[in-house]
Predict the structure.
Amino acid sequence: MRKILFFVTLFFSFQFLSAQSGIKALVGGYLINSNGDKPIDTSTIILNGNKIEAVGQKSLIDIPENAEVIDLTGKFIIPGLIDAHMHFFQSGGLYTRPDGIDLNAYYSYEKEQDYIKTNLTKTLARYLRSGITGVADVGGGRWNFEVREFANQTEMAPRVVVAGPLISTVDRVKLDIGDPPIVKVTSTDEVDSLVNTLVEAKADLIKIWFIVSPDLDFESNLQLIQRTIDQGHKNGIRVAVHATQLATAKESVRAGADILVHSVDDAEVDDEFIELLKEKGTIYTSGMAVLEGYKKIMSQDLSLSANDYEIADPFIMNNLMDLQHIPKTIIPERVSEWLENPEDIIKRSNKRVKTAKENLKKLQDAGVTIATGTDAGNPGTFHGSAIYREFELMTEAGLSPSQILINSTLNGAKLMGLDSQTGSIEIGKLADMVILNSSPIEDIANTSDISMVIKNGKLYEPNQILPITPIEVVQKQVLAYNQRDLTRFLSFYSDDIQMLDKSNKLILEGKEEFEKRYRNRFKSKNLHVEIVNRSVIDNKVVDAENVTGIEFDVIRSTAVYEITNGLISKVWIINLN
């Protein structure tokens, strides 16, 4: 545990939040539950410490005299959301899977892992800021068990259950820098040894990566899958399987898999598969947003949403565009070919998403238990905000807001093994819920319209969970600049923004003049700013920048940004060409 405390940042200290305790009465909100109860238009919920003590129509619930009354008139209450498939060992950025895109020569995997560990506290906060009060990390190194311990000691963090290293039918040596997240097994002895290690670490789940290809013997690997599931169950641990192919998914369920952590995306699911899932009680996880990741990167069309800008890590989002300026000699030949001709990847991705959506709808209609999972951490799938894209895809698949909410709360809790404690708003359960400003039943997108998040009976406003720092304001406008998103770019500047030169002479003033300056520049498809060096002094951020895609090969400049009330109020530009 000392190691993880060393890696976490000073962001850990949220001393400005009071330690809330005692009895609270949430009065007047529109309660939308996930346990089959009808919505209550004017509810009262009594919280006693971290537990729910009473729930019902306002007129039927007596409020204790010593309760702190919180008026939620006009608000909507749902259980805390759950992302039932994510990975802490991945950042969501370009450098997080060198087994897919190997850029170690430019940015090492060791640095990537250090960044992830250093920013763990903020990653946890990104989930809570998204209304996610529980996550299942279904595969990572042994460091995962430290993550679980740390999250359980951190107030502004979701509940975390973890699997340790994935037991795999294939090897991923480029991910092994001392604590491999994926371990290949070739014998029952190796299976037994790894399972025993996970049992000793008190893993919540065991995860299998079941990959089949022409050079792998299906039957031999299936025997290892069966052995893993049997050994897991023998030790009282449920087993989750990565099986995106219909054939492997069927065999995994037959072998006793408790959870399938991905959508089947290679073929239409059939009646046999549906009956297998229902007979075995296997939980099927959505996992569609992740299928778009490599398409986004190779097409350099990231399609960043307002929720991404608000919640996701702006440094990670921006590095997805690094392929625009990384020396061509460093980029693997296969990746260069993808960048030059991304049509095939785009076509394959779209086909997989289409198949996954059709299968999800078919399984939902058949009554299969479905949990919402994003596979966040994979390239282009961001921690926290990815759940909103998953909701969009589930809606496109034909699921109703009510179905999506159940999948994203109670069914997620079932996958975590915590449905007796959370996942719905009921007496005796943990007080984990989200207060919304608008109805998620009218539009599931309203789950992002958060007024407050309640975790363990403590109330947090969004800006308390994830306060924006000067460096993040500047980084977000860098991100918008590289995306050539003029509206988003301008949103990080105050209405009375001033641009000055090195002698403090005013160059322009006001957002309208600012917009005129950048409107034509943003038409350049090759526009890109690279931050060469950065320093922060109080509310000022100093960036050494290289800008490409304008009239010169490279414009070298220094920009000094002054941030006031969360917006850039002044910027000094010093051109060095």
Remarks:
- The CA atoms of residues 249 and 376 lie 21 Å apart.
- The chain has 20 helices and 25 strands.
